[in-house]
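TASK: fixed-backbone design
INPUT:
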């Protein structure tokens, strides 16, 4: 039977937006404020108070759906995203504290606790701290091989976002075959995240992405090209525990490391499935999960076969695998009918979970 709620007129959608957007923001501000207070306690050296407040913040995060219920699918996804990010952030910090590996502020003179807490809250990658999970690839030697200044300008985030925007525009003018849709979504994520990064970045913030067109392997795509916003929780909550457990069980180190990589991709699969659940069908969620876990397994296999060797055959195989997986995934995503031609109004219609 057809769901008539998806045929609501535009003024109903606008009314829902006006009603539910403040509710969504409020639902995020309350636990977000408590999360900040917990980090302030940590910055003041009061770890017991931090533990209590962070547990309370985590509880409020997971209660936000019930405290401020919203029907708009996009707002529900926003709530899910915030809950998942906040949960990973808190668990990541607790894990670092338990293993005595919490990073130290090294971007200058240590700021007062109120500012340090704000930095801890907003820096997903611990850019201002040492150690941090950021691993930047060596800069390419071309173009402008004889002019380091021009080459640095070419690879700046400002030039690269314009270049990726141009590629995105060209792709949107082409027939929207699945692999074109997949590339369009990859570029959309690049453009949106980089745009936000350029607005809210700190002086110490390195780029989130490398140029997508330079990826020449699955391993390079995920470690050098794609954004590393969630590298810290992947390391502390998935890779390191898996590696340590398997080494303790006397598994060979290479197998333990490979399992740690797959565990990290599995964490990202769960994260994306939960965050996007209000916007996706059950089939779409399953394909998102397979996409991430499959990438983890195939990346491990690729490294086992090729090691660190770079070759054009490896690059072609990587792009073929990545686009095949992404194309298979976007077929089940209803907003993927060409990013510019998607039903964006439908994002604020009732969630498919209702």
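OUTPUT:
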């Amino acid at each position: 039977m057809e769901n008539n709620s998806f045929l609501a007129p535009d003024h109903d959608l606008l009314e829902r937006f006006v009603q539910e957007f403040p509710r969504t923001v409020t639902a995020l501000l309350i636990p977000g404020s408590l999360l900040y207070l917990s980090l302030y306690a940590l910055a003041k050296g009061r770890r017991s108070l931090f533990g209590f407040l962070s547990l309370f913040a985590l509880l409020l995060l997971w209660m936000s759906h019930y405290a401020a219920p919203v029907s708009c699918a996009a707002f529900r996804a926003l709530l899910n995203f915030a809950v998942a990010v906040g949960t990973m952030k808190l668990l990541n910090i607790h894990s670092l504290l338990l293993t005595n590996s919490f990073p130290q502020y090294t971007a200058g003179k240590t700021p007062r606790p109120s500012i340090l807490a704000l930095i801890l809250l907003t820096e997903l990658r611990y850019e201002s701290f040492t150690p941090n999970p950021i691993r930047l690839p060596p800069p390419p030697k071309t173009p402008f091989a004889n002019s380091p200044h021009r080459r640095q300008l070419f690879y700046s985030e400002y030039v690269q976002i314009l270049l990726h925007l141009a590629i995105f525009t060209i792709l949107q003018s082409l027939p929207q075959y699945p692999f074109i849709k997949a590339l369009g979504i990859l570029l959309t994520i690049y453009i949106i995240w980089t745009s936000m990064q350029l607005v809210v970045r700190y002086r110490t913030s390195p780029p989130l992405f490398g140029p997508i067109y330079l990826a020449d392997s699955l391993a390079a795509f995920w470690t050098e090209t794609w954004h590393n916003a969630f590298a810290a929780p992947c390391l502390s909550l998935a890779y390191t525990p898996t590696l340590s457990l398997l080494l303790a069980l006397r598994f060979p180190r290479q197998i333990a490391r490979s399992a740690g990589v797959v565990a990290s991709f599995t964490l990202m699969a769960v994260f994306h499935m939960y965050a996007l659940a209000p916007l996706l069908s059950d089939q779409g969620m399953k394909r998102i999960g397979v996409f991430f876990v499959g990438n983890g397994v195939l990346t491990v296999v690729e490294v086992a076969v090729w090691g660190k060797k770079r070759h054009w055959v490896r690059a072609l195989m990587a792009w073929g695998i990545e686009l095949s997986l992404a194309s298979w995934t976007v077929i089940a995503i209803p907003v993927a009918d060409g990013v510019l031609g998607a039903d964006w109004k439908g994002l604020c219609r009732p969630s498919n979970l209702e």
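COMMENT: Confidence is low (pLDDT under 50) at residues 1-9.
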